[in-house]
Amino acid sequence: MANTILGRIKLGDDKAFELLYRKYFARLCAFANKFLCDPNLSEEMVQEVFLKIWKNRASLKDQTTEKSYLFQAIQNTSINELHKIKNRNAYQEVLKVAYSKRTEFNVHDSLLGKELDEKINNIISNLPTKCRKIFLLSRKEGKKYREIAEELNISIKTIETQMSRAFKKLKLELHEYITVILISLFINN
Which of 42, 51, 105, 111 is nearest to 75 (CA)? Predict the structure, then answer.
């Protein structure tokens, strides 16, 4: 395998890695963009795949061809990211609807909104420190994962993991509220 680019990378050859990166980066970004429809996110996903390749170079398979390996990795990473985005968007949509200003706003809705707001703030304040900080930078300050990674000097993967934990905690703790909100929306409309 030492004769192939992946074989050389497996042995720690950084020049081979750079060659692979230069050879495929633009094409992989275009391929990822077919799934994600976001050039910046596509670039992030490609960089993430290359980072994983370098970090896990010792476990590269002998029979793998570089082109098929890279495009399959990008496809898998992009599909996983789409699932994350879909889940995040669904949750955000419920929160938007819960906080949206409707023309018919009654006392029950007001109390529910206040109670929900308090519950959300309580959940966020009880998140582990690192998780809370990342969540607030993303949601309150509107920073992108890349910006947070640079500010906190951590990887984008760490940010994704912490955000996933925060969303899981919110989803778990707010499941009764989401049901009540949805029922309330259908009754009031």
Answer: 42
